[in-house]
Amino acid sequence: MQTKSTPSPVRSPDFAELFTPKLVTVLREGYGLAGLKADAIAGLTVAIVALPLSMAIAIASGVSPERGLYTAVVGGFLVSLLGGSRFQIGGPAGAFIVLVAATVARHGLDGLLLATMMSGLFLLAIGYLRLGTYIKYIPFPVTVGFTAGIGVIIFASQIRDLFGLTLTGPEPGEILEKLPALWAAAGTASPAAIGVAALTIGLIVGLKRYRPGWPGMLFAVVLTSALVVALALPVETIGTRFGGIPRMLPTPGLPSISWELAFAVLPDAIAFALLGSIESLLSAVVADGMTGRRHRSNCELVAQGFANIGAALFGGFCVTGTIARTATNVRAGARGPVAGMLHSLFLLVFMLVAAPLAAYIPLAALAGVLATVAWNMIEKPAFAAILRTSRADTAVLAVTLLLVIFRDLTEGIVVGFLLGSILYIDRMSRTVATEGYASRIEEDVADDVDREDYDAAMASDPDTVVYRIPGAFFFGTAATVGAVLDRIADQRRNFILDCSVVPFLDSTAANVIEGAARKAHRSGVRFVIAGASMDVRRTLVSHGIRAPDVDYAATLADAWDLVQGRTVEVVDHP
To answer: What is the mean pLDDT of residues 310-318?
Structure first.
């Protein structure tokens, strides 16, 4: 990849630069009372969201609700203290519900704690070996497919409490066994539980639409709990099933450790580490896109490793970066990692003050909270964009989705990645086969003296920067190109992305360009895509990359004329 200006020599960062926590960076930049006030407000906002969610995720994972709070308090604090992202919020995540519940069912609580601790060691190894960069190469359709699959499984796991069903035996874990068992218990449905769950979902959805600044989840849980107590509704609560939650963190201690148990939970620990690394880095990327900052991926994985070890010592389970809470942190005005640390301290204060009240929370309300989380995990716009883009990406998404739902989460990710790689090889083989006779864009400037003069004019313009992608743009190159686009897309008044020799791009590449275009638009930078073929434009437009974020020009010359204010022929969308 090259720019029109002479690139400066690239220096490989040393160990200290790669693994210095962002907290240190923020403090070096200068951190005063104004920053602390902003972080305190953001931390309190996130804590209000995390309080009911942490308990709901713990219950859905097959453990008691206080373990979700231990995870958020201890793990969340360490993620922010040691992490490579300014805004990452760590804690229990809905994506882990399936894996954690299966681990508890097979190996009990001791097995879960040991698997969590082992996953922390694996994450430390991945980070210190600098393997975090390779995790970014997972194709976009795979991430969309597995998050959607997890959303489906989470919803299925909440049907029992949503409808207040009474089962004759333990609830099956596999979805193909779970659904018939739940259907057989349909006659035991509780109208009170259904009403509480429906009211919870309605309040969350309604407040998000009409009062987006209000803590919808906490408001819904508090109101439905008050109604259950006031009306003496016959619904199951945290108190009736678990007996309430403690008011303090437990004394730290090692779980039961044996070679036999370690070998038994090894596959679970590997799955925790794999999913945790993917989820954390995805969350950090979301924060980067919202703020224009860049995280340190390997430092972030090291922090996740220490956080999982710390959470297990206090009786918690898997910790990862959480996309929804991280986005809430950014929107609430956080300045740095102190917000995440304060979010954990606020949760600890809530435990000290309000623990007795948690016994009155109806499980149907927490099921309603997780039902909305499951719905939000299905990325509807991205799903639709992939379906419109290509059959190949659709196949990757569908295979990943179905394997996650009906087989295994790790299997879905691995098979989806392998299928995406095979499809890329097929695409590249067809591209290479036609490269000898494929014509270049006729209107492009010839490689002669005029072209040299033309390049010199663009290079000397202080308001315009041109970046050329000289080949296929796909998930394997998305991380590299995305890093460059992040650095240069907001440095000038005009940014021209030359795609005249890009034979194809996939959904991951389109997602990277979409992020750069939106960032440029927010910064007041004019973003022009030049020379893109009809197929490339079709993929970009399918992902929402259109005016006012970007303009399309048929050639690089037209793009230059466009940013200079001269009239050019408008390129129609495909």
So the answer is: 94
